[in-house]
Amino acid sequence: MRAATTLFALLMLTAVPDAQSLDQVLAQLRAYLTTYEHELGALVADEDYVQQVFVGGRGLGVRVPEVRRLESTVSFLRLPGGAEWLGLREVTRVNRKRVDDSNRLITLLSSKDESARAQAARIAQSSAAHNLGSHRTINMPVLPLELLHPRNHRRMRFAVGADDQVRGTLTTRLSFVETGVPTLIVGADGRSVITRGEAWVERNTGAVWRATVFYRDYADRNQSDTPQGEIRVEFARNEALAVIVPSEMRETFPVVAGRGDGHAKYSNYRRFTTSARIVPQP
Q1: pLDDT tens digits, residue range 111-144?
Q2: Which of 82-91, 125-134, 185-194 has the highest mean pLDDT?
Q3: Among candidates 219, 263, 252, 256, which has minimal Cα distance to 57?
Q4: Looking at the DSSP assignment, which residues form a beta bridge with residue 158?
Q5: Contact present, 210 and 166 (Cβ < 8 Å)
Q6: What does residue 75 show for φ and ψ, rounded to 5 degrees?
Q7: Is the pLDDT of residue 276 over 50?
Q8: Cis peptide before 182 (omega within 30 of 0)
Q9: Which strand (E) or helix (H) includes residue 233?
Q10: 63-77 core/surface letters (b: 16 or more CB in 10 A; e: else)
Q11: What pTM value is reported for the model?
Q12: Which of 115, 183, 214, 265 can pair with 192 through a Cys bridge, CB separation 3.0 to 4.6 Å?
């Protein structure tokens, strides 16, 4: 009996894969994101995004939330000539009331106009105005993918953590910290917004199944190391399209005398197929 137990223990030990080195994880991530950027950039989805603000603080009784529901069309393309891969959001309904009938995002994706980047910026800015809390465009589920993309590796310090299971998939936890300026995200008046986070990277494929980003706008009067905002993204495989896609995003964002929370869900993924589609640039 003892020999059988020992043999079973040995079999269990040999079944556990060796820990991956940092170089291995980064190489797999680099290969995956380079291809995945183009796959995800060809997709459009519907976003249902509920934001709420809790006013007051501890000891002030029950917090009274302000709630806003945004229904939007989102695209995850990278714009030509730019480093941003934050995607585009066009808000069409706020609290179920239609606010935009122009369908500008689909029109933009169909356009051959060279001013597409300027048009995209206008869409992003006008949609950001519907956010509760600060006027921000970084609350997109592809933010961690941009930070993790190989074109930005020189800006980051990486470390490999323990293996972890994400819905049955074996992953390696990869932590990252932005180390210098200018930062990828710029706050009000050009201030640096330092980011750090974690990603759950599938072993052998480099696929990202979960990611968290913490960020802080470093104003001169506020040099705390406490993260000011947080974005957490879950990814799932869309069987119909055979692509891993963002399935939900949770956000914590700063507000005056309170806290803001957001929860977005993504559905109705479809490929935007047209010869006029904006093609990501290398």
Answers
A1: 656 566 677 777 878 888 999 988 888 899 999 9
A2: 125-134
A3: 256
A4: 176
A5: yes
A6: -130, 150
A7: no
A8: yes
A9: strand 229-238
A10: eeeeebebbbbbbbb
A11: 0.83
A12: 183
